[in-house]
Specification:
The chain contains four helices and seven strands, in the order αββαββββαβα. The chain is α+β, with helices and mostly antiparallel strands. It has one domain (26-150). Strands 2-1-3-4 form a four-stranded antiparallel sheet. β1 (47-51) and β2 form a beta hairpin. The longest helix is centred in the first third of the chain and has 19 residues, at 2-20.
């Protein structure tokens, strides 16, 4: 059993290292500005704010990204270009505005209770059924009040 856990940890760290080397993440600070952890230590949860000047701010999951967006994004001179979240099923970065978010499941991120993003409604429903999710939300339903509640 210990060998299996060791293999999973090594594979996860290797996957995080591969992401870190991708062109998209080149020359980007990988420390989450809210949770102060290296986002590549949990690559399945990475979320990103990309600004029009090319700056990217990486987050350990959806919740700290939205918290930063609602509380601190005004500090940037450049306007926001795009928001990305990691699809929980495919592990690919997807446009946050197109994602479906499962609220209230028993799965938690490094940030604790969180929203679980999916690129398709079908994947979100399947996950919700298997993991005691309460509701599926669209991007425009994610408010500062909801993020504060999750904290």
């Amino acid at each position: 059993m210990k060998k299996i856990i060791f293999f999973i940890l090594c594979f996860g760290l290797a996957l995080g290292a591969n992401l870190k080397d991708s062109e998209f993440f080149k020359d980007v600070n990988s420390t989450c500005p809210i949770k102060f952890i290296d986002v590549f230590s949990h690559p399945d949860w990475i979320s990103v704010l990309e600004y029009k000047n090319g700056e990217k701010v990486l987050f350990s999951s959806v919740k700290p990204m939205f918290h930063y967006f609602y509380v601190s994004s005004y500090k940037h001179i450049s306007p926001l270009k795009k928001m990305y979240v990691t699809d929980f099923k495919t592990k690919n970065l997807i446009d946050a505005s197109d994602a479906f978010y499962v609220f209230g499941s028993r799965i938690v991120s490094a940030s604790g209770d969180d929203l679980i993003p999916f690129s398709s409604m079908e994947d979100a429903k399947e996950f919700m059924d298997k993991n005691s999710g309460h509701k599926i939300l669209k991007f425009n339903e994610i408010t500062k009040k909801l993020i504060d509640y999750l904290d």
